[in-house]
Amino acid sequence: MAKRFTKPSINWVEIEKRYPPQQQNNYMAFKAKSAAYLQRVQANPAEMPKIDWEAYKKLIPQSNIVEKFKSDLEKYKVPYPQDNVTSQIDAQWKTIEKDVQQFCAEQQKHIDAASKELKRIQALPKFEDMTMEMFYYLYPERAIDPVNRPTFWPHNPEEQPGYVTPEAKTSKSSH
């Protein structure tokens, strides 16, 4: 008989953490379907009910028919597939678990850096409220500096004297 389980081995809290907010409806539908399936499985008995062969022998005059059914039923075994892949999956998981943890740690560093940058950006004054002096103070390398780095209007790199296209830079460096 297949292994009977008493409670679901699904960690719904972890799954819910990983679901994006815009897909909460899909998550709730999936969870409801899983709960309904589990309820249907648990509504059935863990083992087949026992057959009262003596009662059938009393009801049927030819007892050899009952004996034949009984022997045929005892011979019949429901073929359940053997679990021969779980050990392979466990072995494969052991080989990649360190790589997964390392990748997660690296991604967490990126997430922390992005969160820090997001907090910094959110702390900036609104674009409408920012003055040229504020912009120069916050981004001195990007701000227009007419004294130390004079530029021509429209103050983009392409319109400045001595501008070299990126393609020309790469062709010069490759020669």
Can you describe this structure in just a few lines?
By secondary structure, this protein is mainly alpha-helical. The protein is built from seven helices and no strands.
Indicate the topology:
Layout: H1 12-18, H2 24-43, H3 53-59, H4 63-75, H5 86-123, H6 132-138, H7 166-174
Helix pairs in contact: 3-4
Task: Please characterize this protein's 3D structure.
By secondary structure, the protein is mostly helical. It is 58% helix and 0% strand. The protein is built from 7 helices and no strands. It is elongated and about 115 Å long. The mean pLDDT is 87.
The Rg value, from CA coordinates, equals 36 Å
- Mean pLDDT across the residues is 87
> Helix segment count?
7
Strand tally, please?
A: 0
End-to-end Cα distance, whole Å, is 75 Å
Large-scale geometry? elongated
Key attributes of the depicted protein:
single chain; 175 residues; mainly alpha
